[in-house]
Predict the 3D structure of the following.
Amino acid sequence: MKLIEFFKHYPDEESCKIAFKSYRLQEGVTCKKCGSTSHYWKKNREQWECKSCKHRTTLKSGTVMQSSKLPYQYWFIAMHLITSTKKSFSAKEIQRQIGHKRYEPIWSMVHKLRSVMGLRDEQYELGEEIELDEVFFETVSITRDKTEPLKRGRGSQRQSTVLVAAESRVEEQNYNPKKHRTKKRVGYLKMMVIESLKKEDLAVVVKEKVKKNTKIVSDKSNSYNNLKEDYNLDSKVVPKKEIINR
Ligand SMILES: [Zn+2]
């Protein structure tokens, strides 16, 4: 959704609240006390009341917005900025765009949104065709004594191996040979920290995240050997130049 369309849909606090209520109703409201899903809507209080036990549920309770005092529109703007652009928005930038004085509540909102989006990502299984690759990250423990300079090979620093799985699909529609080198487009992407590149460790992670019988394109490495039974493996030979540029 473009910014202009976003503000047509959600011009003010009231429209965001109404939209939020209807999205919530699509999921259904479950009483925390007795588990019933039948409720009355108490308009003057803006709460649901359980038909069986009279327990009340506020609009925000049980959602990512629970106990937040921020306006609905802030949440909607933040969700829009986080999801609609390729650029990643920092909490600081979102605070600037919204024009809110205090950083802490905005940081907390963005953090909550990212974590529920992460949960959704967790549930998503990659399919169709994916490309697998490994990358290495230097990770530093956050409990490190900040007065000490970082040294290579210290105990608090370690190299993590991360497996990157990207859905790639061929797209005929928007392909422009002058602009795009290939017809392939990246879809959903997952990054997973793995214990090691041993084929056993790698297979455990992949089987958890990638649907069976998916076509997997990877470089020709023995690490992928344990995937042969469940997946359709396609090894590419990576040209030397590509390795250097990575
Ligand atoms: Zn109830």
Remarks:
- Residues 103-123 form the longest helix (21 residues).
- The chain is about 35% helix and 25% strand.
- The mean pLDDT is 84.
- The longest strand covers residues 157-170.
